Amino acid sequence: MSETDELLVCRQVQPLTHDVTTFVFACAEPRLSRHDPGQFLTLTLDIDGRPVQRCYTISSPPTRPFLLSITVKRVPGGLVSNWLHDHLGPGDTVRARGPLGEFSTARHPAPKYLFLSGGVGVTPSMAMTRTLYDLADPADVVFVHSARTPANIVFRHELDLIAATAPGIRIVHICEEDDRPYAPWGGHRGRLTIEALRQIAPDFLEREVFTCGPAPYMAAVRHMLSDAGLDMDRYHEESFTFETPTGQADASLAAATDTGFKVEFTRTGRTVECDADTSLLAAASRAGLSLPASCAQGMCGTCKTTLLSGSVDMRHNGGIRPREIAQNKILLCCSKPLEDVVIDA
Questions:
Q1: What is the pLDDT of residue 181?
Q2: What are the pLDDT digits (tens) for 211-260?
Q3: Alpha-carbon span 97 to 6, nearest angstrom
């Protein structure tokens, strides 16, 4: 893959649970795909006559380079996830940009890992675990996945096989509920707690930790590990959200702005205030505007739009090309106003 858009052809659709499906792709121009385990793609899809972008982790490992896959949960009311589940099939094509992201064991190698995931946030953990398994890597891995019920455990059978055949990889599932009253869950129950983690991985403070899942799950895990004394330089997390910015933008969302620059969003007809220390995306979200966004770190390009007037300080991480910047394109998540601005959004 490259930093420019690439055409991918869907080769196979693999249902995993009642609402999670893996889509397997190959490059339209025959070539091997290259990525680090845990990285993501930004897909551009034509839905109802307009391009829509979303980020998805590459769930397949780089050790299987002839194909690459994404694993998607159908979200009630979700525009893209429902379109993928209902319309994408073998032979169909999508445009993709990537691979992108630093959330990878390749970027943070260690002798011992702790993978913590919730729901479909299991995909980067799966990509990293598949890679370590394929390479017979001697790393000590504890893989802890939280699901609502046993039927919601994604990749369950493959993970059972990995656990049975790889001595250095231990798989633990935590379920909140039973599948049915007459099929009780015999494993860890409830939600992940520090007590459960100490039981599962007593040496968790010595491990490189990778976390991915819904925002409330990650917030709880982050606080739990910090309070337990984990060196947070060894903590890594990944999240894609399409409504509220995550990570560093959270502080901006919580801050009140009484004075600042005016930001006009022409398509919505709204004008909001934004100070010089707040991103345009955070200011829009605080004002109740829901704009397309994913990584909130200037990497994926989902929040790309056109700056019609004014100037901004944009500090991106590869989510926009120089020629796009020359055409007055900006990323809302990493752009802060230097004066009053008008945005085509």
A1: 66
A2: 999 888 998 999 999 999 999 999 999 876 543 333 333 332 232 334 47
A3: 6
Of 258, 239, 235, which Cα lies nearest the Cα of 247?
A: 239
What confidence tens digit (pLDDT) does each residue in 64-88 have?
A: 999 999 999 998 888 899 999 999 9
Please state, in angstroms and rounded to a whole number, the distance separating the CA atoms of residues 156 and 38. 19
Measured from the Cβ of residue 327, the count of other Cβ atoms closer than 10 Å reads: 10
The sign one gets for the Cα dihedral 84, 88, 89, 93 is negative
Residue among 17, 145, 156 nearest 74 (CA): 17
Joined together, the tokens standing for residue 165 give 């055949």
Q: How far apart are the first and last CA of the chain?
A: 29
Lowest mean pLDDT among 23-27, 297-301, 321-325, 336-340: 297-301
Whether 316 has a pLDDT exceeding 60, the answer reads yes
Amino acid, res. 26? A
Provide the b/e sequence for 49-73 (b: ≥16 CB within 10 Å).
eeeebbbbbbbbbbeeeeebbbbbb
pLDDT grade, residue 117 (50/70/90)?
very high
pTM as predicted: 0.77
